[in-house]
Amino acid sequence: MEKLIIRDDFIKLGQALKLCGIAGSGIEAKMMIMDGDVKCNGQVELQRGKKLYEGDTFEADGRIFTVVK
After folding, report:
1. Nearest CA among 41, 39, 44, 48 for reference residue 18
2. Rounded to an integer, what distance in angstroms lies between the CA atom of residue 61 and that of residue 69?
3. What is the CATH number of the domain that holds 38?
4. Whether the Cβ atoms of residue 38 and residue 44 lie closer than 8 Å to each other
């Protein structure tokens, strides 16, 4: 499991996908989420603006990340 370190209280899912290098752009992140290819805390997430807080996990492209502040 990899860590995604954030400075603020939360990060939006689309931004997280770009920051960790899974998605190259916002459009790519949006399409991955809309296609059901992304899980948050073990469940498929369809909201690009889903807020991730410290301790949340997300999974995409065979990689799992934990949000750390």
Report:
1. 48
2. 23
3. 3.10.290.10
4. yes
List C-alpha distances in Å: 40 to 22, 32, 37.
Answer: 14, 13, 10
What is the span of the domain harbouring residue 7?
2-68
pLDDT per position as a tens digit, 15-69: 999 999 999 999 999 999 999 999 999 999 999 899 999 999 999 999 999 999 9
Q: Is 49 exposed, middle or buried (0-12, 13-18, 19+ CB in 10 A)?
A: exposed
Q: Please answer whether residues 63 and 20 qualify as being in contact, where contact means their C-beta atoms are separated by less than 8 angstroms.
A: yes
